Amino acid sequence: MDLPVEEWKSYILEKWALLPKSVQVTISKAETLSDIFLHSSSLLQPEDEMFLKRLSRGYLVGKDPNAPLFYREEGNKKFQEKDYTGATVLYSKGVSHSRPNTEDTSLCYANRSAALFHLGQYETCLEDIVRAQMHGYPERLQPKMMLRKAECLVLLGRLQEASQTISDLESSFAAKPTLAASQFQILQRTLCRLKMKIQKKENLTETVSAALTKAFEDMDLREENKQISSASASVSLCTDPFKGRYLIATKDILPGELLVKEDAFVSVLNPAEVLPLHLGLESKWDTRVTNGDLYCHRCLKRSLAPVPCDGCSYAKYCSQECMQQAWDLYHNIECSLGALLLTLGVFCHVALRSTLLARFEDAGEVTRKLCGDISNKDTRLPESKNLVQTLSYDLGGESEKNGKTVETPIPGCDINGKYENNYYAVCNLLPHTENHSAEYKFLCALSISALCRQLEAASPQALMTGLTSSKLKAAMAPVLCPESSIWGVAMLRHMLQLQCNAQAITAIQQTGSKENIITDSRQVRLATGIFPVVSLLNHSCSPNTSMSFVSTVATVRASQHIGKGQEILHCYGPHESRMGVAERQQKLRSQYFFDCTCPACQHGKHRTTAEPRWEAFCCCSCRALIQGDEVLSCGNASCTESVSRDHLVSRLQDLQQQVGIARKLLRNGKLERAIQQLLGCQHDAESFLSAEHSVVGEIEDDLAQAYAALGDWQKSAAHLQKSLRVVEVRHGPSSVEMGHELFKLAQIFFNG
Fold it and tell me: For 230-368, where are the alpha helices, taking DSSP H only?
């Protein structure tokens, strides 16, 4: 949810509609962000704030003392069903609602350690055992947990520690024989079994997959760029009066070459799955598994055993270190505002966090940027790529001064001409103020104003928490003064920037049952971030790069050969393989405020109206493609077949229903019946769909999965190779979709 909740949006738009025409005109024609913010915020009334508070109360982000027992009992049910991942998440939710150093906390950690043990997460299991002990785990329950610890140590090959743990347990039994005879016998048998394991066990080595994952994460740029941080030496930063800033290749670049590896300046986990209490929940405690339960709220690393914030139940982290870093940087301010931030949306949250992070950069620079570039009415950053006169100075290049030609700086670069991943670069991303509608600017300004009112309740000292230098604190004091509008103007600038400059941070998640030998995957949006270097890339509907993420780090690689001097291009979303020209142009115009003139769009405008092959129908007699509007005729001159489009669309819908039935059989493990159903669908599809139709590819992919589940690798590979041909036609040979299919084929070859 990038923007505020629908109720707040509707409320503000209604408020806008009721404003006197003169006030609307004043805000619409305001020339600076400062004017927009001041005029709009003066209209925020107490009743508006009360309405927003009522909406915010729907989000449960505080710690509920009754929740830990509920989540622990729900987790126990999942544990008994052997759904250990589900149990782990529910125990984590219980931990999130528990206060530190309580029995509730210790019991949730101990139960989670048991689930993690069954998932083979032995190191993490040990960490939870330590946490349970730190929070006062009851002594009467210690023996069972210590046995689990010993078993983890054995399985990890840490035999000396395992022997010591067993020895300590035996001493404890002898000193305090408090267990019942039956329990004592069970524990004694377990101890004997562990001792035998220790005698046989050899030290484990790091698995190949773990080593490869680490190697991929640690992969760095071959040669760091001296002009642009986080970029390779193969690219250079240029400017143009119409294109603005952009990157070009300084040499020939091969497919796969790493061009940018940049950590987000700021990122916020996407809370799209968090529902307010009045929407769709049977109880106030949500048992669904969301990305917020599985990924660290600071670094976005996947974690089945998160460490919660001590002050709220929403924020969770992969480690104590991540939690402390988040607290020091921004969460000490955000913690009490959690419900409000969920109500106001991700863009508002990113705007706040960006401004909070500005506190930790050079005080003089931040003060100048906030007070000068943003607040001062006479000092404006360029806000339009069409203003050639402004760009000739503000976007760099050459200009005349006293009869001499001087080179002007590129926005975002320091005095040495270096472009870095810092707040100065973020400030210089265009907010496109003149392109946004007056209603949108009013919504953003009032949302930021409401947030500022809450920030004003905190003292300037709270906002300066974490700043180490007294000189730095003194310099920042005027910037963080609650009476000043600078804080709000800075956040408004960032909120307006995000429509064009926000980057969706994604992850690849496996889908389907973990028991499947062949796994499928899907791309999910985890977070929204700002990447100043990645933002330099211009759009193409047929880009020459691909982007992927590891935690908060974006990597941009060449997806094809890029010649020296050629522009490095990235797709903003509307890709030629997923949308038609008209749809792409509409999307780019409405969100990014430009008309795309890339080769794919130019070619598409002059292309015939024939349907793409992945949507085309074929003649039932000769298999040639058929074309037309209401009635489609065979393209083969010697064939006279024709058919109505309505008839073909109806057949396609019936076929998709039959494929759906086959997939349900496949999910339920009824493989033979699923295969028969899919083969019937395949035969039907061949009679009226082109060989490259996307539904044909989907049927082949489903057949590949079914045969793989039966262990018939030859047939599985044959069907998947047919699916690959459709994917290549639909998405291109170097597409991410092609990569996913090739990985599945690799798994089939390996297993077969």
Answer: 291-294, 320-326, 332-334, 338-344, 346-357, 363-367
The residue whose two tokens read 């002050």 is 311
Give the Å distances, CA to CA, from 638 to 19, 616, 624, 632.
Answer: 69, 20, 11, 15
Tokens, residue 289: 């598994």
Instruction: Enumerate long-range contacts of 375-380, CB under 8 Å, 24 or more apart.
Output: 375/34, 375/485, 375/486, 375/489, 376/34, 377/31, 377/32, 377/34, 377/35, 380/31, 380/32
The model's pLDDT over 367-425, given as tens digits with 9 standing for 90+, comes to 455 444 444 433 333 333 332 222 222 334 444 444 444 455 788 898 888 999 999 89
The whole-number pLDDT of residue 188 equals: 59
Distance CA 536, CA 534 (A): 5
What DSSP element (H or E) covers 162?
Answer: helix 159-175
Contact 92, 305 (CB under 8 A): yes
The phi, psi pair for 66, rounded to 5°, reads -90, -10
What is the Cα–Cα distance from 432 to 440, expressed in whole angstroms?
12
CB 745 within 8 A of CB 720: yes
Q: Which of 206-210, 546-550, 564-568 has the highest mean pLDDT?
A: 564-568
The four Cα atoms 551, 556, 558, 564 give a dihedral, to 10 degrees, of -160
Q: How far apart are CA 282 and CA 53, in angstroms?
A: 23
Q: How far apart are CA 90 and CA 435, in angstroms?
A: 45
Residue with structure tokens 């350690």? Answer: 113
Name residues whose C-beta falls within 8 Å of residue 263's C-beta, 6 or more positions apart in sequence. Answer: 230, 421, 552, 553, 554
Tokens 């798994």 label which residue?
747
Task: State the Cα–Cα distance between residues 702 and 690, nearest whole angstrom.
Answer: 18
Residue written as tokens 């079914």?
706
Q: CA neighbours within 13 Å on the CB side: how many for 483?
A: 2
615 secondary structure, DSSP code = G
Per the listing, tokens 């996947």 go with 302
Query: And the tokens for 567?
Result: 């522009």
- Using DSSP's 3-state secondary structure scheme, residue 418 falls into coil
Q: Which residues make Cβ contacts (< 8 Å) with residue 140, sequence separation at least 6?
A: 178
Farthest-apart Cα atoms in the chain, separation: 100
Average pLDDT, stretch 709-722?
Answer: 92
Residue whose C-alpha is closest to residue 528's, from 274, 294, 297: 297
- The DSSP H or E segment spanning 621 is none
Is residue 351 classed exposed, middle or buried when 0-12, 13-18 and 19+ CB atoms within 10 A define those classes? buried
Please work out, in degrees rounded to the nearest 5, the angle formed at the alpha carbon of residue 68 by the alpha carbons of 65 and 69. 105
Q: Look at residue 240 and give its three-state secondary structure.
A: strand
Angle made by CA atoms 168, 172, 175, in degrees to the nearest 5: 135
100 with 135: CB under 8 angstroms? Answer: yes
Q: CB count, 10 Å around CB of 110?
A: 24
Q: Which of 416, 683, 425 is nearest to 536 (CA)?
A: 425
Q: Which is it for strands 520-530 and 503-511: parallel, antiparallel or unpaired?
A: antiparallel
Q: How far is CA 729 from the centre of its chain?
A: 28
Cα separation, 431 vs 383, whole angstroms: 6
Closest CA to 113 of 102, 104, 103, 126: 126
Measured CA to CA, the distance from residue 528 to residue 508 in angstroms comes to 16
**Model confidence pLDDT, tens digit, residues 591-631:** 999 999 999 888 866 555 566 778 888 888 888 888 888 88
Rg (CA), the chain: 30
C-alpha to C-alpha distance for 624 and 634, rounded to whole angstroms:
6
* 3-class SS of residue 506: strand
For the cut 90, the answer to whether the pLDDT of residue 79 exceeds it is yes
């405008």: which residue's tokens?
Answer: 605
> CA distances (Å), 228 to each of 44, 121, 225, 532, in order?
42, 40, 5, 10
